[in-house]
Each structure stands twice: as structure tokens, then as C-alpha cells.
């Protein structure tokens, strides 16, 4: 039985008769293919990724597993529509804390129309994309079974200032803000989630090493999804911290050139997470705790505690079919 994904934090939502992604009980994620060229480009990218021998196996784990395409009933009631079928990243997670970080100070591709460039540039200027090289597109942080999740609205998250982004990165791995969001984050879970040989920082550094050399693709408006189980971290157990690259709507051939836009944003994110690990109590921001509480919770959706209301979409996983080699056979 198909249902709305319970742990989405950004993008289009399959609610109120709208078209959006769905999941099933087997752990598969169904993302509707867009009707324009982005839909076919999306499939082309995954085919290219799955058949390209130049992608190291240890790097493939950072991409969602691709199962092909399938016709299923669309969430908006419009009938059968082709969907991309991927592994549900949140499958098996009970109360995952999730953060969607869009990488790059520039979120449009060279081939984009002037209208689209202006649209993206407006968003970039209103967010931390330009000053930091990345922005938070959405997130949810588990607080407790009674309080559910802290989840700013999508529009508010995208407009986080530089200082607010720094604060959220600390709050994401803190234990003392479960019941009181006014408290300065203690970063008590930083070493468990961000640190360690299998932690988020180690995974980001592994990804960075690849981006320092790879010239196969250029990723525009791509996100890194950060996921972990806060309850397990609080109990001192392995929180299952992981990262996944998502949102490939604007991936182009690298043509032998390093993707400096993505690499720059990735290095910036690594810098801030490293600082939290090395000096967790020295990351005081210029935004006071009380001002932060006002700014980060005055959102379009408010603070959502009910897990069933937390929605996030895959938000377009696409590449340029004209530039990427693909096969003629559909995988379904």
C-alpha cells in the first residue's frame, strides 16, 4: 500500500490532492517524473550513474539505490504516471532527525534560461547560499515522544541567515534543547553524530576527496541529506548517522573540469561541522537564544510536533539527458 512519506523535510508534498512522492512497505520511494525534459533527464542521470565505471564503489553508497521506473497511481488522483523508484532513505528509522543541505553558492546551471537564473539568484541572495556556499532547505529534529519534532517551515528554513544556519548545525546535535528551545545548544551529541570514523564528518571528507578529482558531473542545486536517530545517540548507541546526495535536477557533464561550485560549498559545510567538533562550547552565534527562538519558529508552518505531518520530497533528481549517456531500455 502506497502512502505519504512520514519523514520529509523539503520539496513538494503529496498532500491535499497535490502531486508528490509516495513510499510503500517494502522500503521503496516513488518520485513522480516531471512531464517536461527534467523527467527524462532524471532517468538518464540514474542510468548513467549506475553504468559509469568511473564512479568508485565507496562513493556509490552516497547516492540513493535506483530500481528503475514504474507506472503507479499518482497522489493527485490524475491516474497512472511514471515514477522513479528509489530506496527509501528513511526506511527503518523510527524518529530520525533529518537535515536537507543544498550545496553550492550557485544553484543554476550554465544552460538555464535568464528567467530561471533570476529566480534562483533571488533565492540564493535571500539565504545563506551566497555567503556560506550552502543553505538549509528543510529539517526536522527529534525532541521527545511527547513533543515530537522541531521542524521550521520550509520557506523559513531556506531563509535562515548565516548565524541561524550555524546555530541550527549545533542544535541538530544537542541534547539540552529537547524541552527548551531557548537554551544555547550544548552539542552533546556532536562527537557521536558528527565525529568518529563512521560519523558525518568522516563521510563528508570521503565525498570531498572524490569531488577534488572527479570531472564526470557538475551538480547544481544538489542537496546532501543528513540523517541520524537521536534517541539512539542519547542512549550512547550507534545513531546510524549517514549522508546521501539527492536532488539531481540540474546535473551536467563535467567535461574534464572540477565542480568547484559544489566542492566549495561542501568544504564550507565541512569547516563548520569541524569547528563544532573541535570547540563545541565556543560556537556562540551573534543571534541570541531568545531571538533565535523567535526567528526559527516564526515559520510558514510553525513548529510541527506531530510526526505524521512531517513531509519532504525528493525534489527532482535529474540530469541533462543531452549530455549524459543512457541506455535505450527502461528499468521497471
UniProtKB/TrEMBL annotation:
Q: What does this protein do?
A: Inositol phosphate kinase with a broad substrate specificity.
UniProt GO molecular function: ATP binding; inositol-1,3,4,6-tetrakisphosphate 5-kinase activity; inositol-1,4,5-trisphosphate 3-kinase activity
Q: What is this protein called?
A: Inositol polyphosphate multikinase
Which family does the similarity line name? Belongs to the inositol phosphokinase (IPK) family.
Top EC group: transferase
Gene Ontology BP terms: inositol phosphate biosynthetic process
Kindly give the Pfam families that the UniProt entry links to this protein: IPK
- Gene Ontology cellular component terms for the protein in this record: cytoplasm; nucleus
EC number in record: 2.7.1.140, 2.7.1.151
Q: Which UniProt keywords apply?
A: ATP-binding, Kinase, Nucleotide-binding, Transferase
Which catalysed reactions does the entry list for this protein? 1D-myo-inositol 1,3,4,6-tetrakisphosphate + ATP = 1D-myo-inositol 1,3,4,5,6-pentakisphosphate + ADP + H(+); 1D-myo-inositol 1,4,5-trisphosphate + 2 ATP = 1D-myo-inositol 1,3,4,5,6-pentakisphosphate + 2 ADP + 2 H(+)
